[in-house]
Each structure stands twice: as structure tokens, then as C-alpha cells.
């Protein structure tokens, strides 16, 4: 089927999803709740780099925020499975607002790195997990199994629609005002998104199923551990690029211009998600995931050889096409491998894999850029993505229904 046909088929499927009773309001609110995720990494890198003059320090602070976000996602997911979404997300939103404002004040008043890290940890841990909650709503809003796969793709697409504009917004606000203003705009959106989402009837009604859980939660299942490892590699590669691309742009006069390359990555992901969700895919899902990860590795390697802005923009757009299909394929596998009754927490674990990887990637990218160059960082991202593909192949049996 030509690309245009995939797009039309996807539009019909996504239109049917949005027409479902109770679906449109949460989707709209989840856009606002998702956008700050794309704003924070770039915003923190610019904010802390301006305050300290170091990409390495900026990468570590952004990594601390992302790591705390990973742990907070799992904690919020477990709580939502037990007590519902409204109280958890609203409490998190209040704490998050305080923590991010504190981070901005600390950075703009030359606070030591330990204070910046503490504020980042608090802000990341309390970031309201609206995309995780949206994924859980789809499990009850959509009864048809094939259409539900498109719903999972829509979660990724909504996220990409949000974050495709986020780096551009951050770059614009940083250019005309300051990185601090960009951070305050992000926390305003995060708070509004969480409050708006929990005000919808679907979110107010949603309740998880009580289930016995060990300390490891869904990670007690072998398939969930495999998906976690794959997405940790995926997140690490992306995290390295989040620092390497501003460094590439800084060599050419403006670190803020790196936001345009990050936007290209997200734009490609949006296009890939639309096409991927427009049809039902055959073949072994584990091998499909491995192939997608190898494609991401190839894109990172090509980025290392990019000689100018146009080449880098084209490379990021092409690499981005593979991102949403990778995360959507892994999310769909949860229906096979996750323990019963862990719908929210299991997806939060996958998010944790991505953000733990992103945290490591931010720190690794900053260190490689400061010690060598953006080229070395991009090659490091390629190696990590290739390792994620190898994990999917070696542990493919754990991703089958029989293994689950």
C-alpha cells in the first residue's frame, strides 16, 4: 500500500478511536500533559549550561531529572492501579510545580550542583504521568483487540505531536526570553494537563484491578524484563542524541538551534507512528523490534558523519520514522507478557526503561561531547541501539505467549 493509503487508513482508525464515548477529552488533555516531557530535557540542558558553562553538568542534571521521572512513573502507576488516577495525578501535579520552580530559582541564583540535582530529582519524580494513565484508559475504552493496537499507537502519536513542537518552543522561548521562562512554561503545561485529564469523566471512573504484587512488580515477568532492557537501550541512544545535537549546533554558532534537529527527530517519529498504526502487522514481534532497533543504530551512525545542518536534519527525520513504531511494538507486547492486573504499572515500567536509558544517555552524551566530540557521542548512541537489538533477538522466546 502506498504511503498515502497508509495515512488514509490511519486517519480512519484514529478518527474511530476519537469518536468513542469518553475518549476525546482525555486525549486532548494528554497532549498538554505530554508536551512538557519533550520540553524538560532540552530546557534543563540550556538552563544549567547557561548557569555553569558545562554540557557535562547539564547532562548530569537532566539525567537526574529523567532518572527520578522513571522511578516516579512506576510509583504513580502502582498507586493508580490501586486507588485510581484522580488523586495520584493531582497530588503529583502540586509537588511538581513546587519542585520545578525551585530548580529554576536555584539555577538562576548560582546554587551549587548538589542543590540543582536535588531539585531535579524532586521535579522528575513528581512529573504527572498522564501518558501512562491515557494508555490505561484505552484498555477499557476500546473492546476490539486490533483497534486497541491502533489506540496504543495513538498514545505514541499524541506524545509525538506534543514533543515535536516542544524543542522548537523551548528554543524560541530561550532565544526571546531565557531558558528559565521555557522551564516555567513547561511546568505550567504539566500542571494544566494533569488537572484537565483528571477532570474528564473517563479518568474519574477508571479503577484498576487489585492484584498481589512482589517488590519487583511486573518486572517479575521475563518478557517485561526483556522489553525493559530493549527500551533502556533505546532510551540511552536517544538521550545521547539529546545532548549531541545541541553540541553539533553549538559548533555552528547556536546550541539553541539543536532544538530544530530534535524536532526533526520527533516529526519523523510522528510520521512513523501514523503509518505503523494504520495496519495490522504480521511476523514475529520480537524480530520486528530488533529490526527497528538496528535501523535506529544505523541512523545514529549516519548522524556522526553529517557535515552540515541540512544533512543532520534529514538524518534525524529519517531516524525518527523508526522511533514510534519501536515503542508501539513494545507496548503491544505487554498484552502478551505482562502479569494480569498490572496494566498501568507495566506500561510505566516500559516508560521507566526509556527514561532510565535517557538519563544514562544524557550523562554519557555530555561526557563524550566534553571529552571528544558530538561525532563520538553519536557513534556511542549507535552502539547502544545495536546492543538493544541483540537483546531482542537473544531473548525473543520470552516475548511469546507461551513464555508468558
Task: Describe the model.
The structure is a single chain. The chain has 404 residues and is mainly alpha-helical. The protein has a single domain (3-208, 217-399), classed as Up-down Bundle (Growth Hormone, Chain: A). It is 80% helix and 0% strand. It is built from 16 helices and no strands. The two termini are 33 Å apart. The model has no long low-confidence stretch (mean pLDDT 85).
Secondary structure tally: strands: 0
| Low-confidence runs | none
What is the helix content?
over 70%
In terms of DSSP E residues, the strand content is under 5%
- N-to-C order of helices and strands: HHHHHHHHHHHHHHHH
Kindly report how far apart the N and C termini lie.
Answer: 33 Å
Q: Judging from the principal axes of the Cα atoms, what is the shape?
A: globular
- CATH superfamily grouping: MFS general substrate transporter like domains
CATH topology label: Growth Hormone, Chain: A
| CATH level 1 name | Mainly Alpha
CATH architecture: Up-down Bundle
The averaged pLDDT comes out at: 85
SS-based class:
mainly alpha
Write down the Rg: 20 Å
Number of domains: 1
Amino acid at each position: 500500500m502506498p504511503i498515502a493509503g497508509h495515512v488514509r487508513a490511519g486517519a480512519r482508525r484514529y478518527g474511530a478511536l476519537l469518536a468513542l464515548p469518553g475518549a476525546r477529552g482525555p486525549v486532548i488533555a494528554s497532549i498538554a500533559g505530554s508536551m512538557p516531557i519533550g520540553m524538560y530535557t532540552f530546557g534543563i540542558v540550556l538552563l544549567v549550561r547557561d548557569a555553569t558553562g558545562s554540557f557535562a553538568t547539564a547532562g548530569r542534571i537532566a539525567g537526574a531529572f529523567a532518572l527520578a521521572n522513571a522511578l516516579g512513573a512506576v510509583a504513580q502507576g502502582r498507586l493508580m492501579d490501586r486507588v485510581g488516577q484522580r488523586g495520584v495525578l493531582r497530588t503529583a501535579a502540586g509537588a511538581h510545580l513546587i519542585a520545578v520552580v525551585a530548580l529554576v530559582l536555584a539555577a538562576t541564583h548560582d546554587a551549587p550542583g548538589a542543590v540543582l540535582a536535588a531539585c531535579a530529582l524532586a521535579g522528575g519524580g513528581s512529573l504527572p504521568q498522564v501518558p501512562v494513565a491515557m494508555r490505561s484508559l484505552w484498555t477499557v475504552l476500546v473492546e476490539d483487540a486490533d483497534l486497541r493496537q491502533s489506540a496504543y499507537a495513538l498514545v505514541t502519536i499524541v506524545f509525538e505531536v506534543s514533543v515535536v513542537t516542544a524543542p522548537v518552543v523551548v528554543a524560541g522561548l530561550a532565544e526571546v526570553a531565557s531558558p528559565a521562562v521555557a522551564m516555567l512554561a513547561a511546568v505550567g503545561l504539566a500542571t494544566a494537563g494533569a488537572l484537565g485529564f483528571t477532570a474528564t469523566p473517563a479518568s474519574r471512573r477508571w479503577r484498576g484491578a487489585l492484584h498481589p504484587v512482589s517488590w519487583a512488580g511486573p518486572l517479575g515477568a521475563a518478557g517485561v524484563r526483556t522489553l525493559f532492557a530493549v527500551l533502556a537501550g533505546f532510551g540511552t541512544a536517544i538521550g545521547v542524541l539529546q545532548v549531541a545535537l545541541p553540541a553539533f549546533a553549538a559548533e555552528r554558532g547556536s546550541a539553541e538551534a539543536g532544538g530544530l534537529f530534535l524536532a526533526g527527530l520527533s516529526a519523523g517519529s510522528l510520521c512513523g507512528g501514523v503509518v505503523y498504526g494504520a495496519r495490522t502487522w504480521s511476523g514475529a514481534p520480537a524480530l520486528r523490534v530488533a529490526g527497528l532497533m538496528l535501523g535506529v543504530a544505523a541512523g545514529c551512525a549516519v548522524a556522526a558523519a553529517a557535515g552540515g545542518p541540512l544533512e543532520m536534519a534529514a538524518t534525524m527525520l529519517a531516524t525518527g520514522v523508526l522511533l514510534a513504531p519501536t515503542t508501539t511494538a513494545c507496548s503491544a507486547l505487554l498484552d502478551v507478557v505482562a502479569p494480569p492486573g498490572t496494566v498501568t504499572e507495566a506500561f510505566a515500567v516500559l516508560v521507566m526503561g526509556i527514561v532510565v536509558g535517557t538519563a544514562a544517555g544524557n550523562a554519557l552524551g555530555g561526557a563524550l561531547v566534553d571529552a571528544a566530540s558530538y561525532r563520538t557521542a553519536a557513534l556511542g548512541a549507535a552502539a547502544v541501539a545495536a546492543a538493544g537489538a541483540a537483546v531482542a533477538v537473544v531473548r525473543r522466546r520470552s516475548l511469546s505467549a507461551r513464555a508468558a
